[in-house]
Each structure stands twice: as structure tokens, then as C-alpha cells.
Amino acid sequence: MSAVREGLPEGRYGRSADERADRKLKIVGAALGVVLLGVIGWIGWDYMAGQSVSAEVIKFQVVSDTEVKVHLEVRKEASATGVCTVTSQDKEHGEVGRADFTFAQSEARVDEVVSLKTTARAAMIELVGCQPATFGR
Asked: How many CB atoms sit inside 10 A of residue 10's CB?
């Protein structure tokens, strides 16, 4: 009796079409992964390099129903003038105070206690953000 074969012996005549397709998919996937990592890295670097003024609330003290003392640490280029926005909220999370504070000192790191006026007793403070000062706009 003779045996009937359906196709070529496996592995004898090179890779099958499925193996070639799998290899191409792996190469394309790896290339896309490298491109995605590059884009994420570039966005992160651009974000960090673009932050020329940043700050952190060290502590705050509610002085009265109409005032809060806020200790800020500002980091900026020594030649830059920075503006930081601080808000205060009452215990129901309603905004009771907002102010912009300008830091023009010729130092890269500024520690300063600022006074924020409020319309009611504050329960918490939030540093909204900081940016370089833009004069003349």
C-alpha cells in the first residue's frame, strides 16, 4: 500500500508561511514598542524641562477666620520671576480665598511665608500651580 501525503514534510523546505508571519508580527510589535517608549520619554522630558518654576507647600497655619499663613518653598531659575497661585477651602470644600504670589528674588530656591486673606475660616490649602511671570500682557 502506498501512503498518501498532504503537503511537504515539515521543516524540510524552510519556514512555513505561518512562521514567517509570526516573525514579521514580532518585529513590527518590537518596533512599535520602541517607538512608543521613545514618545513617552520625549513627552516626559519636555514636561520636566518646561517646568522652570515649581513650588511646594511646607505647612500652613490658620491665624484667624480671615487669614492663613502659608510656608512655600519655590524652586526656579535664579534670574526668573515666578508667580504661584494658592487657594484655601473651608471644611465644606468651598473656596474661601485665592491669591497669586510673586517671587522675584535672585535665588534658585526661595523659602517664604505668605499671608492669604480669606472670606471665612479655612480648613485646607492648595497650591494650584506656578509659572514664570509674564509682564506686559
From this structure: 7
